[in-house]
């Protein structure tokens, strides 16, 4: 009997995700007559210890994953469950993404004190988000809004809507759904208005690249279409040398058309913005090769000044 330890951060969202994944893996084991038992191990990361500081100020990619990856490398855990959007482009030597399961809702949403959409926000309304991607796009649509950082886990951000005088806060739909908090959502923001973060709404499972048992199990959990769109978005992010702390968004979807090798056609939209939303570079490319698409979209935006925008935002 193989024992599989699942490592996770200790936030409510991370724990919920790990538990949902564990249940699914147990079912897969039963279906495929694989003998394994599972256990969850909570790990406190550097990102969790500095939750009160605006992350973009602290800098550093993968603030939430380093310690968890070390546990995998040390053999103290076998699988790590992450939000794909929190994952740096490059994984450490010896680790791979063993599974990318089916994407959930990729959109951002508004949780508002009153009203049901962006248009209901009064002139100069105070909106909470620490994401430069979200502030850039919101300010672009509504330059009058006053954007203020709001840090912490999802539950504490929801509390801050009440306690810190925000008219609205912005969160990912997927996280709220997973926590059963979808009733709080006032308005869904379509990708045309707020292009999601790379990988938003998608989970991933990281494991050691030589752990055949776990790789074999995780392969049964993977969702081919999601893996394809994730590769397009993540290639775009990687070429721009971005993480989730820069004003970059991307969203890829499949259009249903197949090429000669029956590969699906991909439509990839990407954006790079200034944090104040005065400048937004955005374009869409379509094709069949996710890596080529990610690369060419990044090159198109770099040609229009994306690298300079990102350098300025990083300062
Ligand atoms: N940066 C934190 C984070 N990482 C993933 C999600 C949401 C869930 C997901 O995208 O899978 C969130 C919270 C948020 O942005 O509202």
TrEMBL record:
Enzyme Commission code: 2.5.1.61
Cofactor(s) needed: dipyrromethane
InterPro entries (alphabetical): HemC, Porphobilin_deaminase_cofac_BS, Porphobilin_deaminase_N, Porphobilinogen_deaminase_C, Porphobilinogen_deaminase_C_sf
Keyword Transferase part of the UniProt annotation: yes
CC cofactor note: Binds 1 dipyrromethane group covalently.
Porphobilinogen deaminase N-terminal domain residues: 4-214
Pfam families per the UniProt record, alphabetical: Porphobil_deam, Porphobil_deamC
Domain Porphobilinogen deaminase C-terminal: 230-301
Chemical reaction(s) catalysed: 4 porphobilinogen + H2O = hydroxymethylbilane + 4 NH4(+)
Keywords: Porphyrin biosynthesis, Transferase
GO molecular function terms attached to this record: hydroxymethylbilane synthase activity
Modified residues (S-(dipyrrolylmethanemethyl)cysteine): 244
PANTHER family per record: PORPHOBILINOGEN DEAMINASE
Function field: Tetrapolymerization of the monopyrrole PBG into the hydroxymethylbilane pre-uroporphyrinogen in several discrete steps.
Similarity annotation: Belongs to the HMBS family.
Subunit structure: Monomer.
Protein name, as recorded: Porphobilinogen deaminase
Lineage summary: Bacteria, Bacillati, Bacillota, Bacilli, Bacillales
